[in-house]
Design goal:
- The mean pLDDT is 89.
- This protein starts with a strand and ends with a helix.
- The chain has one domain: Alpha-Beta Barrel (Aconitase, domain 4).
- The longest helix is centred in the middle third of the chain and has 9 residues.
- It is an alpha/beta fold.
- The protein has a seven-stranded mixed beta sheet, with helices on one face.
Length: 170
Amino acid sequence: MNIIKGGARVLGDDVSTDIHCSSKYLPGKNTEQIAAVAYEQLVPGFAQGFVKGDLIVAGRNFGINSSREQAVHIMHRMGVAAIVAPSFGRQFFRNAINNGLTVIECDTAGISAGDVIEIDPSSGRVTVAARGITRTVPPLPAAVQALLAAGGLIPFLQQHPDWNLKELAA
């Protein structure tokens, strides 16, 4: 899996993706419209300052209370390259992987907005060279890396109609 490198866009603890993907925003609106105001309630101007390839760096429990896959679709529309947080809401974590968005559980202390972060999901290394931060986390399992490389679960299954779980895990 490729190394991911981008600028940090910081959010805090207990961020529900329902903030940008709730019934308040969805009726009659497409992902482009919603992406333009994502996380506005938490960090004014967040979406306007977001550059394709940036990473979201969050606190504990990112994506809590969210079972909506649309949340990940909006982040794809924004150009989010990956999300790094100490912990994730379980439904969001699985939706992210199933929809091809890299999520890494990692201590984010000391990382500030604008820092350049380098993530190597294969080795489990998260680095912010300018701050001397190197964190080692368990590498993403081969099966998860294969899903992410394919762009998510559905593209993976389309590319591998005869896949075998034992082969994938090897």
